[in-house]
């Protein structure tokens, strides 16, 4: 009997060695504070919370023209930011990783030090802070990110001399820069890396991957988005350039570049964006599936559905981690999609990123309809 695609993938993964990979990631960093909004407090320790965003909105609406007091209960804090979450997901596979970002100043915050020992942390600035008000029907995220203005190329070369940056990128398999929308100086960082670092790199036998996630650029000006996309083209000669987008981001950017997206499919949007931006791969991940236009061909796979996820914040970053891991392990583009969705599928069910063994077991269980 012929093996299914997922079973063939399981066999391939069992022969791979992700612990031999080297990676450099950056440049954001957040601490997320998960908060419940108090409805009625019974005593010092006990309260009921406002369960829905609609109810919270109604409470605020009633205060219009008056005033009101709303109690916010901090439930717990966790590591946040696209870069740290993606880095933490990749670190579960024991790769040699350097993370450069906004992790605390003058010292790195203990929350980021919970990453495994195979991650070397370098901080450029203080972290951003997100107040995440959680409800049964969604979240309201209130970000405080002025400190991310300090993430600059100049600050980076103060902490990491240019010759060391050259050595980092000379010997890496992956260079990932994510969360462009919240890093106001990231386009300038890309331009200066292209000018000062890329010409000094050796030509490797196999190009490393340069992965970028713009992370919901809707709040940035159109001219800034166009400038960023132009800057990214400077990396395509030295790297295999991979751009990751969720469905909303992909259609928003397609509308910016080409106009009306009526009747556009995921495949046509991926193809047209990839050819315009000149990427080697452009991957799009809606909630239920994912697709990638890779070097002239489109691939799409359905994901493992879960009705009640334990955690959704960070699912896209886990998908990105799994997808690039698949490419780094020389899997086919459709297999890399399955590794990406396997990683995010495990994450939303267990509220943590899988180890390599857990990832393989999850894909096997997925194939057998056991998840």
Task: Walk me through the structure.
The chain is an alpha/beta fold. It has one domain: Ribokinase (UDP-N-acetylmuramoyl-L-alanine:D-glutamate ligase), CATH 3.40.1190.20. It has helices at 5-13, 53-62, 82-91, 153-159, 162-170, 186-196, 222-232, 247-258, 266-277, 315-328, 333-350, 356-367, and strands at 22-26, 30-41, 47-49, 72-80, 96-101, 119-123, 128-135, 138-144, 174-178, 209-213, 240-245, 281-284, 289-294, 297-302.
Number of strands: 14
Global mean pLDDT: 95
The tally of domains stands at 1
How much of the sequence lies in strands comes to 15-25%
Low-confidence stretches: none
Radius of gyration: 21 Å
SSE order in H/E notation? HEEEHEHEEEEHHEHEHEHHEEEHHH
Specify the structural class: alpha/beta
Overall 3D shape: globular
Query: Roughly what percent helix?
Result: 25-40%
Largest sheet: 9 strands, mixed
CATH class: Alpha Beta
* Biggest β-sheet: strands ordered side by side in the sheet: 6-5-1-9-10-11-12-13-14
CATH fold type: UDP-N-acetylmuramoyl-L-alanine:D-glutamate ligase
> Which CATH architecture?
3-Layer(aba) Sandwich
Intertermini distance: 23 Å
Number of helices: 12
Features:
12 helices; 371 residues; alpha/beta; 36% helix; UDP-N-acetylmuramoyl-L-alanine:D-glutamate ligase; 23% strand; 5-stranded mixed β-sheet; single chain; globular; 9-stranded mixed β-sheet
